[in-house]
Amino acid sequence: MADEWRKQDTTDGGAENERYMEGNYDSRGNIVKRYKQIADDEHQSVQMAEEIRDSQEAVYERETERLSYEYEATGEAFTKIMKEYIEEDMYQQYLVDGAVLRCNQATTDDFDYNGGTVVLENKADELCNIVLDVHENPISGGSASGSHMTINGQRYATVMDRLQEFNINPPKCNCKLAADRLSEHEKIRADGDRNKNGVCKHLMRLNEEWDNYRVEGTEYLKKDDAIIELNMLEDGQVQAGTSIEHEGVEGITMTSVLFCKHGGLIMPVTSGQDRVEQERKFNTESPDFSDQEAVKEYVWNYFRNANFSEAATAAILGNIYVETGGYRPDVNDNDRYGLFQYMNERKDVFLDRVKKWAVDEGITDVDNAWKSVEMQCRFALEEIETPGDHGWLDRGIYLTINGRSFDMLCTSDKFRTEEDPSVAALMWAASFERCYSGDVIKKDGNIYFTKLQDQEKRCNEAARAYEEFTEYSNR
């Protein structure tokens, strides 16, 4: 059925096939051997281009045929599914942080090299899996992408997310393909833990970007790609931050392939979205707002499953406690609503949005829908993921608490990955609550607060929540 509609873009040439050459030729030893490596490499590049296209076509056909069966789609309806599979993320096919990948040459079998044999200490099959890590990507798109960068709190991946030891950590397994370069044999021999690490880390050399499957008349969703930057501060501390490296580059789907120059094809096993949906099933039932312990646990689970660090989630709980005197989603003191104490224009946006959700979901008591813990968390997450006047605003803190000085711009990306609950509590108070009580200064065009309301208490309550939930989860 797919062949009736699909037309594969097969435009190629010698220059294109160079992308699939291994390179890394021996710089010493037999010159004839080196020329043979080059000739073999050129031959392999042509075969590899064909193998990638064949693999992608097989996955695409399998996926679209499966969807046509699930949706009972034929004719024009099937054509629509095949187009939507690339142009829309309607079937959980776009890869996100946490997607599981696997190389078609990964194995736990023994591996021979010049000097011995690598016999893995652990031969569990799951060792061959790779978990895609794109936590550095932004949570909202830039000017070129024009689209959300997350789904259910999980960051989308792009064709540029191919950095070895960062986005792609080599699995602790062996390879079905022999080492064919002197440098590879030397690295394996030098690894005293090779039976623990496997040889993949010594053979893997990833292509410059992922290959997307091309279908005429379709375009992939565009996302932004970021990199981690390490900056040395004046006091010698190293500060990690992110910056957009590429705006509006293609996302990747279940049909995408990342070529390893040693000869393997790294392909998705899961998109990562199936894991997100499974973890977030608890959201279907919001807890009784009168049960504060249940509310607290719900908020913890909600934001942890939205990929916030333990410290950041504890900071949210600590701030909620200070704002409401507990965990009371039904609180409405002085026209301040809910766990996050929405007021003024922000309150109006919150109430309007919740009423719309209630109508869409068939909830009869629309006027009291705002008391739903789930809807309050959902709106807060939406504010974080779409920063603006009524959401997260990047503010700085320039203050000292108990002899500890803070001078930092509190971005949502930094907050989500913060590992210190006290620091995260101040970040949330500054950029989400914006509850300052001291002077305001400007640095590099950004607003910095010199004092926050109840700043010590916010830190203490965040630390308390952190200890409670991390102790519970480690039992």
Description:
The chain has two domains: 275 residues, no CATH class; 189 residues, Lysozyme, CATH 1.10.530.10. The strands form seven sheets. A four-stranded antiparallel sheet has the order 5-1-12-11, with no helix packed on it. It has a four-stranded mixed sheet with strand order 16-15-18-17. A two-stranded antiparallel sheet has the order 2-8. The radius of gyration is 26 Å and the shape is globular. α8 packs parallel to α11 and α9 crosses α13. It contains 14 helices and 18 strands. By secondary structure, it is an alpha+beta fold. It starts with 13 loop residues before the first helix and ends with a helix. The relative contact order is 0.10.
Q: Gap between N and C termini, in Å?
A: 52 Å
Please mark out the parts with pLDDT under 50 across 5 or more consecutive residues, or reply none.
1-15, 143-147, 276-284
With strands numbered from the N-terminus, the spatial order across the biggest sheet is 5-1-12-11
- Beta-strand content estimate: 15-25%
Number of structural units classed as domains? 2
> Nearest-angstrom radius of gyration?
26 Å
Structural class: alpha+beta
Principal-axis shape = globular
What is the residue-averaged pLDDT? 82
